[in-house]
Amino acid sequence: MFRHLSIKAIVIPFIVIVLSMVIYSLWNPLDNSNTIGEFYNSHPDAGPDAESWGRGGSYFRWRSSLSENSRWPELNIFYRTFGNSDNPAIVMIHGWPTSSYDFKELISELEKEYFIAVIDTPGYGFSDKPKGDYRYSIPDDAQLVDYFIREILGLSRFTLLTHDKGDSVGFAFLNLYQQTGSSPYQIDHHVILNGGIYLPLAELSAGQKYLTLPGFGDFVTRFILTPDRFTTELAKVYSPTLTQEEQLNMSSTFRYQGGTTVFPKTLRYLQDRRKLEKTWLQALSRSEIPATLIWGERDPIAKTEIADFVWENYLRNRDIAASYWRLPCASHYPQNDQPKIIAQLVRQSLSAEGAALTGVKNSKCAPVLAEQT
Q1: Which of 173, 269, 274, 297 has the fewest Cβ atoms nearer than 10 Å?
Q2: Are the beta carbons of 336 and 239 closer than 8 angstroms?
Q3: What pairing do the DSSP bridges indicate for beta strands 115-119 and 186-192?
Q4: Does the predicted TM-score (pTM) go above 0.85?
Q5: Where are the beta strands (DSSP E) in the chain?
Q6: SS3 state at 170
Q7: How many CB atoms lie within 10 A of CB 119?
Q8: Can you tell me the distance from the alpha carbon of 75 to that of 366, in angstroms, rounded to the nearest whole number?
Q9: Cβ neighbourhood burial of 10 (10 Å; 0-12, 13-18, 19+)
Q10: Cβ(92)–Cβ(103) under 8 Å?
Q11: Among 194, 189, 195, CA closest to 322
Q12: How far apart are CA 325 and CA 307, in angstroms?
């Protein structure tokens, strides 16, 4: 009798859990929109600012360069451009788990002086988010950026500005650029914002550590870590914390094509970092492109020890010019926390005369020049 009771004690809760998951899935289906217009037509409660951002963009088709993805069709890749194409160009690459929307405020500060292009890599923002056995890859993203610059933008020269996971894509792209020999374009400057660019010193969150566990990450991102809940947690990494309206807009980019459910796969870019980190940092060290390292000091994940280490070991002793700026009031997303200051640092870095910083003197949030070569 007791044996039968113990079996019931296991089976009945299991059946209840499974039924609950089925009901939840039926009542909360993943978005399967193919376009931004289709998504916002069926989600009128989604963020209006993100909707405006999405509807202002365009798509091009891209097929992964990886043999593991050969059976997958071409993906829709979202991108936007701003400003006059005759002006100096800046290509911006976003981080995990967000999108090109991160750069909206920074772009508004710079678009009158520069031609700016941004892209959502596969699995992010308003680009396609393939599931199943699709292999997300930093080197593949670097190939995508190369294609974007050559075939879509047709740029002959530009500045590369990267953040977070985008730093890794930027380093892989830099390595590709160096291996090409006779590239059809020239990188004039390399701007690097906060990111886990040296993993041994990164303070990864518990979520980042556990999301890639087989099965666990898939379950959590489908039934627990909804776009709204994830956004609420992510908002705390900004300084100041994102407002409710800002969270609504960010959440809609995660909701598009069930974006949070691919987090376990996109987060595996950390595996690429562990495997190729030394190669990428060596590419930075031998680079002949002037570089500007800008770091928010309040970052709880990519702490300033990372920036100090990379500066000391890979940027400081190069023959080409480099500068290292620290922002006392910025956190992990300095382009969102202090877009005006980032814009001024970009202008100064790209100006032959070195544009002066304005409106920040005697401010506790003024950028600090840690070192310059």
Answers
A1: 274
A2: no
A3: unpaired
A4: yes
A5: 58-62, 75-82, 89-93, 115-119, 157-162, 186-192, 291-296, 322-327, 368-372
A6: helix
A7: 30
A8: 42
A9: exposed
A10: yes
A11: 189
A12: 10
Distance (Å, rounded) from C-alpha 98 to C-alpha 288? 30
pLDDT digits (tens), the chain, 373 positions: 445 556 655 555 545 444 544 454 444 557 889 889 899 998 888 899 999 999 999 999 999 999 999 999 999 999 999 999 999 999 999 999 999 999 999 999 999 999 999 999 999 999 999 999 999 999 999 999 999 999 999 999 999 999 999 999 999 999 999 998 778 999 999 999 999 999 999 988 777 777 878 878 888 887 788 899 999 999 999 999 999 999 999 999 999 999 899 999 999 999 999 999 999 999 999 999 999 999 999 999 999 999 999 999 999 999 999 999 999 999 999 999 999 999 999 999 998 665 567 666 658 899 999 999 9
The residue written with tokens 């550590």 in the block is: 209
What is the identity of the amino acid at 365? C
d(CA 289, CA 189): 6
Structure tokens at 323: 């500068």
What own/partner pairs with CB < 8 Å and gap ≥ 24 does 215-223 have?
A: 217/263, 217/264, 217/267, 218/261, 218/264, 221/260, 221/261, 221/262, 221/263, 221/264, 222/25, 222/261, 223/21, 223/24
**Which sign, positive or negative, has the C-alpha torsion 94, 246, 45, 19?**
positive
* Distance (Å, whole) CA 291 – CA 284: 9
Which residue shows structure tokens 């294609």? 147
Helices (H), 204-268: 206-210, 216-223, 227-234, 244-255, 263-266
SS3 (DSSP) at 58: strand
Angle at the Cα of 253 from the Cα atoms of 250 and 256, rounded to 5 degrees: 150
Show the tokens assigned to 352. 């032959």
Exposed (0-12), middle (13-18) or buried (19+): which is 325, by Cβ within 10 Å?
buried
Rounded distance between C-alpha atoms, residue 185 and residue 147, angstroms = 12
Three-state SS at 238: coil
With residue 48 as reference, give the H or E element that holds it: helix 48-55
d(CA 127, CA 133): 17
Closest CA relative to residue 79, chosen from 121, 49, 38, 110: 121
